[in-house]
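Hey everyone, long-time lurker, first post.

I ran two proteins through the pipeline my lab uses and got sequence/structure pairs for each. Pasting them in order. The first:
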Amino acid sequence: MNDALRSLELAEATLREGWTQGERDGVPYSYVPPSPTHYYWQWYWDSCFHAIVWRRFDPDRARLELTSLLNGGHEDGFIGHTTFWDRPVDMRRRWTYNVGSRDAANTSTIQPPLLAWAWRIAVGDPAAEPRIAAHHRWLREHRDLDGDGLLWIVQPDESGLDSSPKFDPVWGRRAHARLGFIALIQRNRRRGWDARRILDSGGPLLCEVVVNVLWCLARRAAGETSITPAIVERFWDPDRGLFCDVARGDVARPREMDAVGGDHRIRTSTWSALAPLALPDLPEEIGRRLVGEHLLDTKRYWTPVPAPSVSVEEPSFEPRDWETWLVRRYWRGPTWINAAWLLWMGLLRLGHEAEAQAMANALCGAYAREGSREFYEPFSGEGLGAEQFGWSTLISELADPDPASPGSHLGA
């Protein structure tokens, strides 16, 4: 059996083995936890990625998983980044996690809002589900601070990229040191995780690239106006040829950032600086710079198992993420399959079929050999982090490409 077929087989088995069903207070739920041995609850963007893969093996489960996200949301359209369906939050988590009270059913923070895009790919027209429209209204009202369509986040984990080194100059040790992160949680809890209140008290807040790329795809999937022009205007640094996050408020290390008006631009080159490759309406000349100057550069992102989550050239690059009880250092170098998939779609769209196939072959080889791991060492392909990791089943999209991939499944 070749690596692609083996990857498809392992991906289906991973999702099926993790399938969890039940009912809480009369509300049904069905989902796959990110890892049954490591992360127990339902995570927002994980479930979106799971549903995209489920459409291949069991379309009914794709709908059920996304519907469970909606079932766990609030009436006003808010959906937390974690929903605690089948086991309550323990005492330690109540102190160290993004929950507003002891009996909270979900976190008070968000994750990259790709639900409508996942629904479009895996289920159908998002307009048929009014709760998705309510979700988008909540995001616009509470996180679009400048009225340009772009969303702001209040903590690094709202990006899904946890302790990426790009957050270090914004939040300092609060980005990756457990005690520092707890202090950040306590500060934001006192302000109800309200972005405007947090900014009024000094912030900082971050307008982050991946959040807004996935938000743009979700908006387009829901028939709303593309915010790609705003993404280019806000984040594109033509001198460096990268998309760079913008922070506002009292950042931890302003000297490590570039002043942009009254805001601060991050300098660190991570995979998120290339993430707009997933936008089908990204100007071609910008996409070609991202690919030619960065993604395909062997000194930056084109490792044997591409693409690392941080440029190899960066001093902060670490090929093996790690954590202790005091420090958690994720997204600081290894290759993550969800990130690779987004970049891979850009390669296809720009006509780099050979490179896209090489990327798929390398990732399928690592996945078939190591199993569905949380992330992979970008040179050897060694599987690292949690086992039976759900969103790594996105390898299916590379092993058996969908013809809609070059247009990011939006018909573009």
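...and the second, right after it:
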Amino acid sequence: MKKKQLIDVIFASEKRKNVLLMLKDGPQEMAVILEELDTNRPALLPQIRILEEHSLVYQSGDSYGLTTIGKIVVDEMKPFLDTIESLNKHSDYLSTHNTESIPDYLFERISELRNCKIIEPSLVNTYEINREFFDKSKESSSMMFVFTFMHPTFLELLSYYLAREIDISMILSRELFNKVKNEYPEELQNTLSNNGVKFYVYNKDIKVSSLSISDDRFVLRLLFANNEFSSKQVYCCHSEAYKWSRDFFDYFMKDAVRITSI
């Protein structure tokens, strides 16, 4: 009998795909596999036989594990499936919002955002802060922000965090910094004089409304594709996505200029 193409072996059957993924962390007994996949032996055995025929899985007694080839395949397969999951979950948001400011190396890691939530506040709450994020951030040791628009509670939030002795690193677009400097010079100078604040200006174009990062979570607001303001938020508190947000902040930081006075 002619062997199937490897791509068909892996992806043409949910059972085969799930068996491979389940064995990623080590061999499993058949009873465990059946329970985890919620299936029965007669339905699963033919699929496992196909995996064995293509040298992806081996049998030892009543247990199954990945062969060397199987490990190579699954190591490549998992990131691909995570990326597809993330794109499927967030395709509407990504296709309608401006992603130009996300560098290629971070877009290639879009799978890390697969567990994030897209939140759309009601009309009356369009400019409200993300309440869950704010409540959790109260216990943070530090906060990081990127802002390109004047949030209504911008200065109030800044004062609140500083009063709680939370260190702040903040990157503003040149336009926003000039606005704050012209309209709130005294408040800005007082803020710059605070040792708990590091203020930066980003002189390049930023296609992001805001990025707010606490010790363990973040909120990202992108502009719509036509560069108009969008109230939708990417909210995440998973460690993998959190690392992504920190790297995104560092991407802006490398070209930002420290401001110590006006």
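Reply from user beta_strand_b:
Welcome! Quick read of the second one: The first strand starts at residue 28 and ends at 29. The CA atoms of residues 94 and 224 lie 9 Å apart.
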